[in-house]
C-alpha cells in the first residue's frame, strides 16, 4: 500500500522486526477466580522501551493481567516471562516492576520525601544516594517545595505526581500504570499524558498502562491491546486501531463510528473494483483486501469525520451515497456531529470540522442533505 | 505551580442556620448538665470531704456546711492533713505505684494478645467479620461479676484447671494449681475482662487500613514482615493509643478483680480506698485517695487528647 495509516509518533517498531526478542511475554495466560475466567488463554509480547496500553471496559481482565505481572496475582495457567525469566513464584517485593496505583496508595503517615524514598530504603542504599535520588525525582515531577508535606496536604494532581515519582524512583525495568490519570480533570489529564510520554522517552523505560479511556491510550502509547472478556481483540498502533480495526467490537469501542450491516455482492480485491456490498439497498464499494466472498454477511464501518455532508448531490449518487434529512445536531465546538436520517430510515453520523467561524447558511434540523464518502474512507469488517 | 496550592484558601463563609436555634442549644446542654450534676458536683463534694477531718458523727466528717452565716469558720477548718498523711505513709504510695504497675503490665499483655486478634479480624473475609466482632462482644451478655466469679471456679486449687491438668497427667493426684489469690490470678482476670476494650478500638483502626498500601509497600520491595512495622503498625497507632488508655485508666482504679482473685498482699489503690471507706470509715482519707487517683490519671488522659488533636 502506498498510503499509510495516521501519523507516526516515533521511529520505533520492534514488533515488526521478527528478530527482536520480547521484553515481557505473557504465554497462554489463564486466570480464574472461582468460576469466573478473568483472563482466557492470552498470549502477548511487549518490547523493551515500549509504551504499551491495555485498553478495555471494566471487567475485561486488563487490571488482572497487570496485577499478575506485578506479582499480586498468580496465573492459574501459563507463564509470564520477563527478559526470558519465568516470574512464577517470585513475590512482588522481588520483582523489578513498580506500579503506580489507581488510588495512588501514598503512605499517609509519611511525607512526600519519605514516600519517594521508601522503595530506595528497601534496597539498603547509602543515605546520601537515597537523598540524591529523591531530590532528582522531586525535580522531575516539579514538587521540590512540597518535599516535607504529607499526602493529605496536596492536591489531586500533586498526589498523582508523587505516586509517579515514587514508582519511578527505583528505575524499574517495567513501570505499571493502573488508570493513572483517572482522578484528574480533563485539562490536567491531557497535560500529564504528554508529560508521561516525554518521561518515558527520556528515561527509556518500558511502560505498561491499563486504562478504559481510549483517548488516554491513544495519546500515550506505542501500541494498544484492546481487550474484551479476558481476550485480546486486537494489538496494534493507535492509528491502526482507529483506522483499521479488525472487528466490530474494536471499531465500536474506539471512537465514534457508523456500523452498517450488509452482504458481499462481489469481491475482486483492492486494485480491481474493490468489495461491493449491499446493505439493505444502500450500495457500498470499498477498495480493500478482504477475505470475504459473495454472499457473506459483513459490516461496513465508517468514521463520522470521513462522511461528507452537503446540500448538493455528489457526482455519483448510486454508490457510497445516500439522501436524507438532518435529524439531530451535536455542536461540540471544534466540530459538529450531524445525525442524518436517510430516506430508508437509517441514521448516519457525519462530523464536520467547524473550520469557519461564520457561515452563510448553517445546516439545521429538517434540511434535505446528501451524505457520501470515498471508496477508501470506510472499512469492511468480517468479525 | 499553581499559587493557590501554596497559600491556604480562606474558609468559605457559610451561614449557620442552627446558631440561633434554641432546640440545638438544648441538645448540647443536656449531656453537659448531666456531667455537671453527676460528675462535677460529686467531685467537688469529694474534694471538700478530702479536706475535712474524721468525726464520730453522721456524716462521719467535720466540718459540715451549715449555711453562709458560718462561712468563715467553715473554711478555716479545712486543711490538707489527709494529703500529708497519704504522703507520709508508704502504704498509699506503694498502692498507687503497684496499681500503675499492674495496669501497665496488663495493658502490654492486652496489646500483645489483642493486636493479633484485631489484625486477624480485620483481615478476615468481609462476610465473617460481623460474626467475629459479635464473638468479641459476646461476654458482655453475662454480668461482669459472674464472669469474675467463674474464674474463681477455674483457678481455685480444687478447681477446673487442676482437674484438667490432673486428667491429662500434667499433675499428680495430690498436686493443685496455686494461682488464685496471687498477682497472676489478677492479671488473668484483668486481661480476660478488658480484652474486648482493647480489641475493638484496634479492630476499628486496622479495618480502615487500605490494603493497597500494603500492596504498594510490597511493590516497592518491602517484604510483608517489614511492611507491618513500617505501614500497618504506624497507621494503627490511634487504635493502639485509644485501646491502651481505655484499658489502662480503669485498670488502675480496679477494685473487683483484685478483691476477688487477688491475695491479701495484692496492693491496689482501689482496694485500699475501699478499706479506708468501708472498713475504717475514714471518709476524708478515702476522698483524698480518690482525688489523687484522678490527678494521676489526668496525665494519660491529657496525653491522649493531645494525640487525638494532633491526628485530627
Automatic annotation (TrEMBL), chain A:
Family membership: Belongs to the ABC transporter superfamily. Spermidine/putrescine importer (TC 3.A.1.11.1) family.
Single GO molecular function: ATP binding
Function text: Part of the ABC transporter complex PotABCD involved in spermidine/putrescine import. Responsible for energy coupling to the transport system.
Protein name (record): Spermidine/putrescine import ATP-binding protein PotA
Residue stretches making up the ABC transporter domain: 24-254
Domain of life: Bacteria
Coiled coil keyword on record: no
Assembly information from the UniProt record: The complex is composed of two ATP-binding proteins (PotA), two transmembrane proteins (PotB and PotC) and a solute-binding protein (PotD).
Enzyme Commission (EC) number: 7.6.2.11
Gene3D superfamilies: 2.40.50.100, P-loop containing nucleotide triphosphate hydrolases
RNA-binding as UniProt keyword: no
Top EC group: translocase
Keywords: ATP-binding, Cell inner membrane, Cell membrane, Membrane, Nucleotide-binding, Translocase, Transport
Catalytic activity: ATP + H2O + polyamine-[polyamine-binding protein]Side 1 = ADP + phosphate + polyamineSide 2 + [polyamine-binding protein]Side 1
Automatic annotation (TrEMBL), chain B:
A Pfam match: BPD_transp_1
Keyword Transport: yes
Entry annotated with the keyword Ligase: no
Entry-linked CDD domains: TM_PBP2 (cd06261)
Leader peptide range in chain numbering: none
Transmembrane segments: 25-51, 100-119, 131-152, 184-206, 227-251, 283-304
Classification via Gene3D superfamilies: MetI-like (1.10.3720.10)
Domain spans labelled ABC transmembrane type-1: 96-304
Record membrane topology: Multi-pass membrane protein
Keywords of the record: Cell membrane, Membrane, Transmembrane, Transmembrane helix, Transport
Main location: membrane
Subcellular location: Cell membrane
Family (UniProt): Belongs to the binding-protein-dependent transport system permease family. CysTW subfamily.
Record-given protein name: Putrescine transport system permease protein
Amino acid at each position: 500500500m502506498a498510503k499509510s495509516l495516521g501519523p507516526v509518533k516515533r521511529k520505533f517498531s520492534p514488533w515488526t522486526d521478527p528478530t527482536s526478542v520480547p521484553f515481557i511475554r505473557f504465554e497462554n495466560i489463564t486466570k480464574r477466580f472461582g468460576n469466573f475466567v478473568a483472563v482466557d488463554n492470552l498470549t502477548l509480547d511487549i518490547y523493551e522501551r515500549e509504551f504499551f496500553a491495555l485498553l478495555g471496559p471494566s471487567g475485561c481482565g486488563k487490571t488482572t493481567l497487570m496485577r499478575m505481572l506485578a506479582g499480586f496475582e498468580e496465573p492459574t495457567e501459563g507463564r509470564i516471562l520477563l527478559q526470558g525469566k519465568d516470574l512464577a513464584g517470585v513475590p512482588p517485593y522481588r520483582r523489578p516492576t513498580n506500579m503506580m496505583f489507581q488510588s495512588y496508595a501514598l503512605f499517609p503517615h509519611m511525607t512526600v520525601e519519605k514516600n519517594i524514598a521508601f522503595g530506595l530504603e528497601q534496597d539498603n542504599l547509602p543515605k546520601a544516594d537515597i537523598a540524591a535520588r529523591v531530590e532528582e525525582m522531586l525535580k522531575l515531577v516539579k514538587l521540590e517545595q512540597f518535599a516535607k508535606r504529607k499526602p493529605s496536604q496536596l492536591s489531586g494532581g500533586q498526589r498523582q505526581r508523587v505516586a509517579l515519582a515514587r514508582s519511578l524512583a527505583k528505575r524499574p525495568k517495567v513501570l505499571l500504570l493502573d488508570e493513572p490519570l483517572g482522578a484528574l480533570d480533563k485539562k490536567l489529564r491531557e497535560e500529564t499524558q504528554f508529560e508521561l510520554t516525554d518521561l518515558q522517552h527520556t528515561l527509556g523505560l518500558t511502560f505498561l498502562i491499563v486504562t478504559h479511556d481510549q483517548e488516554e491510550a491513544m495519546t500515550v502509547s506505542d501500541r494498544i491491546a484492546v481487550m474484551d472478556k479476558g481476550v485480546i481483540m486486537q494489538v496494534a498502533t493507535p492509528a491502526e486501531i482507529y483506522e483499521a480495526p479488525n472487528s466490530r467490537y474494536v471499531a465500536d469501542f474506539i471512537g465514534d463510528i457508523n456500523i452498517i450491516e450488509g452482504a458481499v455482492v462481489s469481491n475482486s480485491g483492492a486494485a480491481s473494483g474493490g468489495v461491493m456490498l449491499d446493505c439493505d439497498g444502500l450500495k457500498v464499494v470499498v477498495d480493500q483486501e478482504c477475505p470475504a466472498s459473495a454472499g457473506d454477511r459483513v459490516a461496513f464501518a465508517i468514521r463520522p469525520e470521513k462522511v461528507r455532508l452537503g446540500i448538493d448531490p455528489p457526482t455519483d449518487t448510486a454508490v457510497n451515497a445516500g439522501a436524507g434529512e438532518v435529524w439531530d445536531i451535536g455542536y461540540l465546538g471544534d466540530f459538529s456531529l450531524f445525525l442524518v436520517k436517510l430516506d430508508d430510515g437509517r441514521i448516519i453520523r457525519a462530523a464536520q470540522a467547524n473550520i469557519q467561524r461564520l457561515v452563510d447558511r448553517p445546516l439545521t434540523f429538517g434540511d434535505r442533505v446528501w451524505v457520501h464518502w470515498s471508496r477508501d474512507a470506510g472499512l469492511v469488517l468480517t468479525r | 505551580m499553581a499559587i493557590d496550592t501554596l497559600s491556604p484558601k480562606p474558609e468559605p463563609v457559610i451561614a449557620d442556620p442552627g446558631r440561633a436555634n434554641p432546640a440545638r442549644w438544648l441538645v448540647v446542654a443536656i449531656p453537659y448538665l448531666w456531667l455537671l450534676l453527676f460528675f462535677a458536683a460529686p467531685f467537688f463534694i469529694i474534694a471538700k470531704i478530702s479536706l475535712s477531718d474524721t468525726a464520730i458523727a453522721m456524716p462521719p466528717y467535720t466540718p459540715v456546711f451549715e449555711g453562709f452565716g458560718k462561712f468563715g469558720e467553715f473554711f478555716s477548718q479545712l486543711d490538707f492533713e489527709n494529703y500529708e498523711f497519704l504522703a507520709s505513709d508508704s502504704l498509699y504510695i506503694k498502692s498507687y505505684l503497684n496499681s500503675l504497675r499492674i495496669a501497665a503490665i496488663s495493658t502490654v499483655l492486652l496489646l500483645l494478645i489483642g493486636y493479633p486478634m484485631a489484625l486477624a479480624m480485620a483481615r478476615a473475609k468481609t462476610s465473617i467479620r460481623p460474626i467475629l466482632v459479635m464473638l468479641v462482644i459476646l461476654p458482655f451478655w453475662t454480668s461482669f461479676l459472674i464472669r469474675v466469679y467463674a474464674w474463681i471456679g477455674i483457678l481455685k486449687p480444687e478447681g477446673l484447671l487442676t482437674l484438667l491438668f490432673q486428667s491429662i497427667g500434667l499433675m499428680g493426684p495430690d498436686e493443685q494449681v496455686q494461682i488464685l489469690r496471687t498477682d497472676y490470678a489478677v492479671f488473668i482476670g484483668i486481661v480476660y475482662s478488658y480484652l474486648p476494650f482493647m480489641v475493638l478500638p484496634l479492630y476499628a483502626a486496622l479495618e480502615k487500613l487500605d490494603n493497597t498500601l500494603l500492596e504498594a509497600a510490597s511493590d516497592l520491595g518491602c517484604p510483608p514482615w517489614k511492611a507491618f512495622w513500617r505501614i500497618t503498625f504506624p497507621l494503627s497507632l490511634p487504635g493502639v493509643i485509644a485501646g491502651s488508655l481505655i484499658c489502662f485508666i480503669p485498670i488502675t482504679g480496679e477494685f473487683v478483680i483484685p478483691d476477688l482473685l487477688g491475695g491479701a498482699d495484692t496492693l491496689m489503690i482501689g482496694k485500699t480506698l475501699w478499706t479506708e471507706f468501708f472498713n475504717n470509715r475514714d471518709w476524708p482519707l478515702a476522698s483524698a485517695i480518690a482525688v489523687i487517683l484522678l490527678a494521676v490519671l489526668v496525665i494519660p488522659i491529657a496525653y491522649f487528647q493531645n494525640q487525638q488533636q494532633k491526628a485530627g
